[in-house]
Design brief:
Blueprint (H helix, E strand, L loop, with lengths): L2 H11 L6 H12 L4 H11 L3 H10 L11 E6 L2 H5 L2 H12 L12 E6 L11 E3 L2 E3 L7 H6 L3
Parallel strand pairs: 1-2
Antiparallel strand pairs: 1-3, 3-4
Helix pairs in contact: 1-2, 1-3, 3-4
Bound molecules: FE2/S2 (inorganic) cluster (FES).
Length: about 150
């Protein structure tokens, strides 16, 4: 990411330690991940030790040090979704996308993750794609679901 873009984001929140999470989230929203050199630049710019910036970047699930796809799929494996076949949805997505959970497709279109309860248990099994909840899923519905994002 260009230094000028990072500077703009830091200016927007102020170079305060309490703003570091919001700053990293904004960078991630633009870049889809947090490259190491970007974290080093933020550390220097904000005069916050790299170890602290790195700790925050690795603590939160929403942040990633690896490139992510344009669309993020979170399959719920919480108890209610699990008993309704959440693991089968994940299995079908892994097969259809050709990746394992935690990975990104080669064309950078999808990143597949698992989560534990997104608060829509009655709709289970549930997957959240780019923040939108898709409920009452079945393996048969997965191809149609993916088609909407191609
Ligand atoms: S267990 Fe899946 S939404 Fe609650």
């Amino acid at each position: 990411m260009e230094a000028s873009k990072i500077d703009r984001i830091v200016r927007q929140y102020g170079a305060r330690e309490s703003a570091i999470l919001a700053i990293l989230q904004d960078i991630q929203a633009e870049e889809k991940y947090l490259p190491r050199e970007t974290l080093e630049y933020v550390s220097q710019k904000m005069r916050i030790p790299m170890v602290h910036v790195f700790r925050i970047a690795t603590f939160y699930n929403a942040l990633s040090l690896k490139p992510r796809g344009r669309h993020k799929i979170d399959v719920c494996l919480g108890t209610a979704c699990h008993v309704r076949g959440g693991d089968k949805i994940l299995d079908k997505l892994e097969r259809d996308l050709g990746i394992s959970v935690g990975e990104t497709t080669k064309d950078k279109r999808f990143t597949l993750e698992s989560v534990h309860c997104v608060g829509c248990c009655s709709l289970g099994p549930v997957a959240v794609i780019d923040g939108d909840v898709h409920g009452r899923l079945s393996q048969e519905k997965v191809p149609g679901l993916l088609k909407d994002f191609k």
